[in-house]
Amino acid sequence: MQWTSILAIYFLFFVFCAFVLLPFGVRTHDEAGVEKVPGQADSAPVEFRAGRLVMRAAILSAVVTTVYVLNYINGWITVDDLIFWGPSFEN
């Protein structure tokens, strides 16, 4: 596998992990006991920590990409392992 492919896969996993991690650790104004601004949504976070989100997504996507590349190299899980129903191609 080329390094550019690994970089593209890492980027895809990074974006996915960022969206998955987005709701974790968020506190609303009601939970923090802080006054809301008029017209503010009830679900708006008290403080958005983009740096923390990026760091967590970078670490998680690095782990997931490493596992993906190792699986690609070693062939631990193949396409044939993912067929749970349907016709069997074994003789």
The first-to-last residue Cα distance is 32 Å
The biggest sheet, with number of strands, parallel, antiparallel or mixed sense and barrel status, is: none
What is Rg?
20 Å
Secondary structure tally, helices: 3
In sequence order, what are the helices and strands, one letter per element? HHH
Helical content band: 40-55%
Low-confidence stretches: none
Principal-axes geometry comes out as elongated
Quaternary class:
single chain
Number of domains: 1
Kindly report the average pLDDT value: 91
How would you sum up this structure, described in words?
There is one protein chain. The chain has 91 residues and is mainly α. It has one domain. The protein is 53% helix and 0% strand. It contains 3 helices and no strands. Helix 1 crosses helix 3. The longest helix is centred in the C-terminal third of the chain and has 25 residues, at 50-74. It is elongated, with a radius of gyration of 20 Å. It starts with a helix and ends in a 17-residue tail after the last helix. The mean pLDDT is 91.
Briefly say what this structure is.
53% of the residues lie in helices and 0% in strands. It is mainly alpha-helical and 91 residues long. The model has no long low-confidence stretch (mean pLDDT 91).
Structural features:
mainly alpha, 91 residues
SSE inventory with pairings:
Blueprint: H1 3-21, H2 29-32, H3 50-74
Helix pairs in contact: 1-3
